[in-house]
Specification:
The complex is a heterodimer of chains A (about 400) and B (about 260).
Chain A (H helix, E strand, L loop, with lengths): L9 H27 L14 H14 L2 H10 L2 H4 L2 H22 L8 H4 L6 H29 L7 H24 L12 H27 L6 H32 L2 H11 L9 H19 L1 H4 L2 H28 L14 H31 L13
Helix pairs in contact in A: 1-15, 2-5, 2-8, 2-9, 2-14, 3-8, 5-7, 5-15, 7-8, 7-15, 8-9, 9-10, 9-14, 10-12, 11-14, 12-14
Chain B lengths: L4 H13 L4 H8 L21 E6 L6 H14 L14 E4 L1 H4 L10 H5 L2 E4 L7 H5 L5 E3 L6 E3 L9 H5 L6 E2 L26 E2 L5 H4 L6 H5 L5 E5 L6 H8 L2 E2 L11 E4 L1
Parallel strand pairs in B: 1-10
Antiparallel strand pairs in B: 1-8, 2-3, 4-5, 6-7, 9-10
Helix pairs in contact in B: 1-2
Classes of the chains: A mainly alpha (about 400), B alpha+beta (about 260).
The structure holds iron/sulfur cluster (SF4) (3 copies).
The site of one iron/sulfur cluster has 15 residues of chain B, from α7.
Chain lengths: ~400, ~260
């Protein structure tokens, strides 16, 4: 099927060339980092994780969201999603790949990464995160490829794939739960030390991932002959609506517990993020922008009249993306480190090189996504599946 | 393994004869600081099953007192002086309110609030840094409780830095060797680290192994720092802790620090 990726329009090749250029810039920036060490980043003794780990955390959520297509289709026989589960699975592949790359570029000694396997340490959550992420990548590669191949032959997928598909459902939940455990099990980091962190991560994942899928669906319909279908997009929109509301609700639970109990070691981080602390407040405008985007998105999504207008829905999806990206990709990690365990304040902001590497990793992910979507859409076009109802679902 | 006094003298004499140095032997017989009766093989090593330190804040008059000890430690372990927020430090003075964030109390006498408090790795009995390390590069040595690192195994993921509730760990953001004048190491007998690994106070494991007290303890004046075996009721640390009220940093987190403070 891969041959579908090597035939394409001028625009397709131009887009890949552009991504390649961005990737090369990222690789060059990474070479500088590799030679000089992480000193080229804005990280410090106090804020020892920065942009890389934050993007990793955000993208685990995007990856997990494939389950929002798989579950309704396979467990509830929701037909409208049948045609596009492949989009969720391929998005997951690209997102998990970026996650793994972000971990690698964050390591001080990347050449020793295999030590995690050579000296397996089950008491470390990072060990489990490595297992669930790689497992999730493998599951989605196998499921996506096998199901798409059968679809091409217009045969039902082989029976052995079913258990793996069912396995992918709890597995998707596990990747974001385990990722939350990285943070919420650390004593002395009051910002993360909350049992609601994993539910918050999941809620934001099921908001951000499906909103990316909505945008991708609109894009695919515009750029190709394949139409993911109005119904499917509207169903995704409902999922995003519930999830973004839950996400902000969970955040408000956090606010209540923290500010009603008034325990300083938990309060100071939220104060730093949302109001500034002892004159430091680099993230305050961003956090409020995130809140406003989230609330605006809810206003647009909750009203069926606006939600059903696809251009408005597109705007709402972008707002959800911005809201969740700022929350996790900016606030979640630095917020936990400021103030530090001695109640001192060191702020963090990424350097241009660090941003170049970050953008480079995103470009790798989008490159992979482009190729996978090209293949998927190629198969759809080949079998004449252009809009819902064209082809009887074979699985 | 306890040995009696006669055996100890024999061992001390033997280690002196083997050229282990008068200094090491002298450290061993420093009354109280390390209990001689705890001696066992290898003969030159100090023996203890739970090393601990007492920091007597009353004995620190000025920040300079504390900085002098930092200087000693950093020289002994080739810790580079890196300006800015990517610094590396194994032991450093901070203020009372920063060291003891859980003891918020505005009515503490001003002299205590102003006393420099030396902080370092607590060699926790229940160390979160060990719990999170994905490679066992950070581990607790069962024989004597020291939380120690294998610099050759560390992958630089910095999970341990996020997990340590005391800010005791530093990361080599750059190659530390670039920060020594003309590449000359302060202590050629101690290894340097490479860029990309984490490091911290190791309770001078390399010195204990040859019968020496930790460098900072050795340099401390007038009982500022006391070092010994917490499991030995006759050790100086135990005697001190028995007769003085001591505090530890963030005891509520259940990490069980092995560094105690007298105020
Ligand atoms: S003080 Fe920090 S680095 Fe030292 S043992 Fe305790 S948790 Fe680990
Ligand atoms: S940075 Fe090194 S010592 Fe710390 S958790 Fe990672 S591998 Fe372990
Ligand atoms: S015990 Fe040794 S390593 Fe630790 S602070 Fe003192 S001199 Fe430094």
């Amino acid at each position: 099927m891969l041959e579908k990726a090597i035939t394409g329009s001028k625009n397709y090749w131009g887009w890949l060339a552009f991504l390649l250029a961005v990737i090369i810039a990222g690789v060059l920036a990474y070479l500088v980092q590799y030679n000089k060490g992480l000193m080229i980043t804005g990280m410090s003794r106090d804020v020892s994780w920065g942009f890389y780990i934050a993007q990793f955390t955000f993208l685990v959520g995007v990856a997990a969201s494939a389950v929002m297509l798989v579950l309704p289709f396979y467990l509830h026989n929701y037909k409208d999603f049948g045609r596009i589960t492949i989009m969720g699975e391929f998005l997951a592949i690209s997102a998990v790949t970026m996650c793994l790359l972000f971990i690698i570029v964050d390591l001080g000694k990347p050449m020793r990464a295999l030590n995690m396997i050579l000296h397996p340490t089950p008491n470390s959550i990072l060990f489990w995160d490595m297992i669930v992420l790689n497992g999730y990548l493998a599951i989605n590669l196998v499921v996506g490829w096998v199901v798409l191949s059968s679809e091409r032959k217009q045969l039902p997928p082989p029976g052995w794939i079913k258990p793996i598909i069912y396995l992918s459902i709890p597995w998707a939940v596990s990747i974001h739960t385990v990722t939350a455990f990285l943070y919420c099990g650390l004593p002395g980091r009051g910002f993360w030390l909350t049992a609601i962190l994993a539910p918050r991560f999941l809620a934001s994942a099921f908001a951000s991932g499906p909103s990316v899928l909505i945008l991708l669906s609109l894009l695919v319909r515009k750029l190709t002959k394949f139409d993911p279908g109005k119904e499917a997009i509207q169903s995704l929109a409902k999922i995003v609506t519930y999830a973004i509301i839950l996400n902000l609700f969970f955040l408000s639970l956090e606010f209540f517990t923290v500010f009603y109990s008034q325990i300083p070691s938990h309060m100071t981080h939220l104060q730093y993020l949302f109001a500034g602390y002892h004159g430091y407040g680099a993230l305050v405008p961003f956090m409020w922008a995130s809140m406003i985007c989230g609330l605006l998105a809810i206003a647009l999504l909750i009203n069926p009249r606006t939600r059903k207008k696809e251009p408005v829905l597109g705007v709402a999806a972008v707002l959800v993306f911005i809201c969740t990206w700022i929350d996790k990709g900016m606030g979640m990690i630095s917020g936990g480190f400021v103030p530090n365990p001695l109640h001192e304040i060191t702020e963090y902001s990424p350097t241009p090189l660090e941003l170049t590497i970050t953008v480079g990793v995103y470009a790798v992910g989008i490159f992979i996504l482009t190729i996978l979507y090209k293949v998927a859409v190629g198969v759809k076009e080949e079998i004449g599946d252009f809009k819902p109802g064209d082809v009887a679902p074979s699985h | 393994m306890a040995v009696n006094r006669r055996e100890f003298i024999k061992i001390a004499g033997l280690s002196a004869a083997l050229g282990l140095g008068g200094k090491a032997a002298f450290d061993l017989v420093l009354p109280g600081q390390v209990d001689a009766a705890q001696m066992s093989r290898p003969p030159q090593a100090l023996q203890g099953s739970h090393w601990a330190m007492v920091v007597d804040l009353k004995k620190f008059k000025s920040e300079a007192d504390a900085m002098a000890l930092q200087e000693i430690c950093h020289q002994a372990h080739n810790v580079p002086t890196i300006p800015g927020k990517q610094e590396i430090k194994w032991i450093w003075p901070t203020k009372f309110e920063h060291a003891f964030t859980h003891l918020e109390n505005r009515q503490i006498p001003p002299d205590i609030l102003e006393t420099p408090v030396l902080v370092l790795c607590n060699h926790c009995e229940n160390p979160p840094c060990v719990r999170v390390c994905p490679t066992k590069a950070t581990f607790k040595r069962e024989s004597d409780g020291i939380v120690i690192m294998d610099m050759h195994r560390c992958i630089g993921c910095r999970f341990c830095m996020a997990a340590c509730p005391y800010g005791a760990r530093s990361f080599n953001f750059a190659d530390p060797r670039n920060y020594f004048k003309d590449g000359k190491l302060p202590n050629p007998d101690y290894p340097t680290r490479t860029k990309g690994v984490v490091e911290k106070c190791n309770f001078c494991a390399e010195r204990l192994a040859v019968g020496k007290l930790p460098a900072c303890v050795e340099a401390a004046k007038d009982g500022q720092l006391i070092f010994g075996d917490l499991n030995d009721p006759r050790s100086e640390v135990r005697k001190t802790l028995r007769t003085n009220y001591s505090i530890r940093r963030k005891p509520d987190l259940g990490t069980q620090p092995s560094v105690y403070y007298l105020v």
